[in-house]
Design goal:
Blueprint (H helix, E strand, L loop, with lengths): L9 H14 L5 E2 L4 H4 L7 E5 L6 E4 L5 E2 L4 H13 L20 H5 L10 H11 L5 H16 L5 E2 L1 H10 L1 H12 L7 H12 L1 E3 L1 H7 L15 H14 L5 H7 L4 E3 L4 E6 L3 E6 L2 E2 L6 H14 L11
Antiparallel strand pairs: 1-10, 2-3, 2-9, 4-6, 5-6, 7-8, 8-9
Helix pairs in contact: 1-13, 3-5, 5-8, 5-9, 6-9, 6-10, 7-9, 8-9, 11-12
Bound molecules: glutamine.
Glutamine binds next to loops.
């Protein structure tokens, strides 16, 4: 388990990291597959640290809402495991894919069983599983209730314009869904499951809200109890091995903590037993993960000593 080595130094460390991010010239490339994301100002950066029972610390643009995109896969997974338990693993695996988030390659080789719940194919199956016995409206209502309860914030909502744009441009996701269906691994019509999936991707949150929403995965005294300790451990394991697609190994190497990224530039990282950290910067690296967000997390881990693999001597 990581140890809370430097609580008094955290505010200064956050300011320092935000200043470094602000000064950075290489900011990555903002996602441009939908106009709502393409229009986002790449100069923004935010970081927030939530710890059970303590005030959330922030630096930068932590009050600006952004599209959480694939970070939503984590909340939908928690919901699916709550409803189906281990039955979910009959339909989706627990191995890193080593391929991009929207890759079709392994799906054909592995007969429609996606490698893990954090790539698009696996997330589409997870959402489809939550739709067993629930309408899309009910599933999305349950997802929002979960996220709001986790964050302790009723203001969190879905951006319908983003969801509509995702639907117009989501040809690859439609291909994945139809392919899953051809293998009997999609119970609902592709439009129905994808309609739900596109809306979950369009949840908007600020960095502060996202850090607070991650507290349920920190565990320990004072953290919200929305899932069991055993499930916290397993979701964190999946975040570590699969949370950054084909960049998961790199994130584990550089940061050493379980994290889940989204193409909107957000990353939620868990320091087990200690803290939930959200970073946001819209420019992406070549894996589709936030460029400055990853760099900021690498610096935070080095300066605090936070890592599940033992402390760093400093970068
Ligand atoms: N909405 C995006 C998609 O499904 C989410 C991908 C991501 O955040 N990596 O393609």
């Amino acid at each position: 388990m990581a140890v809370d080595t430097a609580p008094d130094l955290l505010p200064a460390i956050l300011q320092e990291i935000a200043a470094e991010a602000r000064a950075s010239r290489d900011r990555g490339k903002v996602a441009d597959y939908i106009p709502e994301l393409a229009a986002i100002d790449p100069d923004q950066f935010a970081i927030a640290i939530a710890r059970p029972g303590q005030p959330t610390l922030t630096a930068g643009d932590a009050a600006v809402p952004f599209s959480i995109q694939s970070v939503s896969k984590l909340f939908m997974l928690a919901l699916a495991l709550g409803r189906l338990g281990d039955r979910l693993w009959n339909r989706v695996g627990r191995e890193p894919s080593g391929h991009s988030f929207d890759s079709m390659l392994l799906l054909e080789l592995e007969k429609g069983r996606p490698r893990n719940p954090f790539i698009n194919a696996g997330a589409i199956v997870t959402t489809d599983a939550v739709l067993e016995g629930a309408t899309p409206r009910e599933a999305l209502g349950a997802l929002l209730r979960f996220i709001r309860a986790a964050a302790g914030d009723e203001a969190i909502h879905i951006n319908d314009r983003v969801a509509a744009s995702e639907t117009t441009t989501g040809h690859r996701n439609f291909a994945l869904a139809h392919y899953l269906r051809s293998h009997g691994n999609l119970s609902n019509p592709p439009e129905m499951t994808l309609g739900t999936y596109f809306h979950q991707c369009a949840v908007e949150m600020t960095c502060t809200q996202l850090a607070n929403a991650g507290l349920f995965l920190v565990g320990g005294a004072g953290a919200p109890r929305l899932v069991s300790q055993a499930r916290i451990r397993r979701i964190n394991a999946l975040m570590m091995t699969c949370g950054h697609y084909d960049g998961s190994g790199d994130y584990a190497f550089r940061v050493g903590l379980p994290g889940k990224s989204g193409v909107g530039g957000g990353i939620l990282t868990i320091v087990p037993g200690v803290a939930s950290v959200a970073v946001w910067s819209p420019g992406l690296n070549h894996y589709g993960n936030s460029h400055l967000g990853t760099q900021a997390m690498e610096r935070l881990a080095a300066r605090t000593g936070w890592s599940v693999f033992g402390p760093d001597g400093g970068v």
